[in-house]
């Protein structure tokens, strides 16, 4: 099953470009940040270990809103999950693009975790829950909570595919346009807006498809030490 341009397509995909994927990720983040006028707490991206499948990008916002009339309790602002239809054959291209996006947005690090399929004998329930969360599915929670607003028409298909094939999840906390910009830091790589100019000098590590393997890309660097 393949996708492109918001719908499934037939035929062989063209060779992907790191710059195109990175631009899709950063422009999606920028557009949602402008629209919501809220600081970002974190960004997660999840992809199935199968070429040419979409990326689910989830933006986790910092902020609260009052539920209904004045005097009602405050609720966390719902996250935003977006399906990005990308063409990619080489996993390293996807990895490079997301790390570059984290670099450009001033993240201190990018975490990458490979997860196994959870449709298998004796798989822990926690693995299934984590898999659904990675693709922005919170349907097991009361509907009134609405923790994430989802714009992903193929979400159910992607979850089913991830359950059979496994997936990879990235996480970074942007400083540019994010909550973390409010904190004092000693990161010599950041510009005045909290971002960084490309290209990102951090090299890729092995492709991350080993089951349960976690890789942490250190991006921030202070005067003689790394920002943790």
- CA-to-CA gap between the ends? 40 Å
What amount of the residues lies in strands? 15-25%
Rg result: 18 Å
Mean pLDDT: 82
* Count of distinct strands: 11
Instruction: Describe the global form.
Output: globular
Question: Which regions are unreliable across 5 or more consecutive residues at pLDDT < 50?
Answer: 4-16
Largest sheet data: 7 strands, mixed
Q: What order do the strands of the largest sheet run in, or round the barrel if closed?
A: 9-7-4-3-10-8-11
Protein name: Diguanylate cyclase
Organism: Achromobacter ruhlandii
In short:
By secondary structure, the chain is of the alpha+beta class. Helix content is 24%, strand content 24%.
How is this structure best described in words?
It comes from Achromobacter ruhlandii. This is Diguanylate cyclase. By secondary structure, this protein is an alpha+beta fold. It has helices spanning 18-36, 91-104, 125-134, 155-165, and strands at residues 3-4, 7-8, 40-48, 55-61, 64-66, 74-76, 79-84, 109-115, 148-151, 167-172, 214-218. It has one domain. Helix content is 24%, strand content 24%. The protein has a seven-stranded mixed sheet, with helices on both faces. A two-stranded antiparallel sheet has the order 1-2. Strand 1 and strand 2 form a beta hairpin. The longest helix is centred in the N-terminal third of the chain and has 19 residues, at 18-36. The radius of gyration is 18 Å and the shape is globular.
